[in-house]
């Protein structure tokens, strides 16, 4: 079999060659994988934007210490690679991931989960094209006592 590209001729299919990749910087690679996994989880979480980015970052740090991978010293090395670049370097990635499910409220459109309180009661009591009024009847009844 002969495959021809623009500049080279392959005697066999390069995709069929056996390949065994061993990363040279396993700890850094593992730290990046954990960070990416944390960000994937955040992207799917509809309430992630309500939590500060620092907390998401700290959760990723704690997950590295608890992961079932090698021994404690190896996990510390992974953690060192993760935090070695500082919080500021990863902050933007975590912030973007947590904001992926963020919805905007417009005068003519309020997402249903934002229009209701967690217990199912109405949070939006007046919705007009020029005005929204939000309040909890439970809080108002408690303030009268």
Describe this structure in words.
The protein contains six helices and four strands, in the order ββαααααββα. By secondary structure, it is mainly α. It has two domains: 26-98, no CATH class; 112-143, no CATH class. Strands 1-2 form a two-stranded antiparallel ribbon. A hairpin with a 2-residue loop joins strand 3 and strand 4. The N and C termini lie far apart (86 Å).
Helix-residue proportion: 40-55%
Oligomer: single chain
Query: How many separate domains?
Result: 2
Uncertain residue ranges: none
Q: What is the end-to-end distance?
A: 86 Å
Strand content: 5-15%
The largest β sheet comes out as: 2 strands, antiparallel
Number of DSSP-assigned strands: 4
Summed up, the helix count is 6
Order of helices and strands: EEHHHHHEEH
Shape: elongated
Offer a few descriptive terms.
elongated, two-stranded antiparallel sheet
List the helices and strands and how they pair.
Blueprint: E1 3-4, E2 9-10, H1 26-44, H2 53-66, H3 72-84, H4 87-98, H5 112-115, E3 124-128, E4 131-134, H6 137-143
Antiparallel strand pairs: 1-2, 3-4
Helix pairs in contact: 1-2, 1-3, 1-4, 2-3, 2-4
